[in-house]
Amino acid sequence: FLVCLEVFMAKQTEFPFQVQGYELDSFQHVNNAVYLNYMEAARWKFFEEIGVLDYLLKERIYPVVIETTIRYLRELKMHDQCVIETSWSTDMDYIVAEHSLYSLTGTRRKAAKATVKMLLVSQERLIYSLSEPMKRRISGICGEECTENAIACCL
């Protein structure tokens, strides 16, 4: 029971990108919904980087966003160079991403921050528990036990 309450903290990642013209609204700044797209791209890149994306896709298990809290702080404009810095952790069976989106154009300024909670869900809508090796991989405290086979047998 106590193991289930353990919170693994926090791998740090960066996802650089540049604002494109087609992402602008009629006021010539990025529409609020596009910020969520940037963060979604950062999340998929993370699962690829930690080496679990191919396995999850093969098994038809998907990281599904179940909750997002976002605060918009500054507008982004065309060709702004940006980065999303994310702290990754787990909380029971939730994967938690704490995103901070910065504009690097001119002075570095935070443009948005968000907390996103995800669960691993199969195509059949079954919710998967996070194995200890998966929690360690997400949190960046992986050792020898974090092979694909360990993740596969414990999902």
- Largest sheet data: 6 strands, antiparallel
Shape: elongated
Strand content: 35-45%
Q: What's the helix count?
A: 4
Q: Can you walk through the features of this model?
A:
This protein has 155 residues and is of the alpha+beta class. It is 25% helix and 39% strand. The protein contains four helices and six strands. Strands 1, 2, 3, 4, 5 and 6 form a six-stranded antiparallel beta sheet that branches. Strand 5 and strand 6 (127-128) form a beta hairpin. The two termini are 18 Å apart. 27% of the residues are buried.
Salient structural properties:
single chain; 155 residues; alpha+beta; 6-stranded antiparallel β-sheet; 4 helices; disordered N terminus
Task: Produce the secondary structure layout.
Blueprint: E1 7-18, H1 32-49, H2 53-58, E2 61-72, E3 81-91, E4 94-103, E5 109-122, E6 127-128, H3 132-139, H4 148-154
Can you summarize this structure?
With 155 residues, the protein is an alpha+beta fold. 25% of the residues lie in helices and 39% in strands.
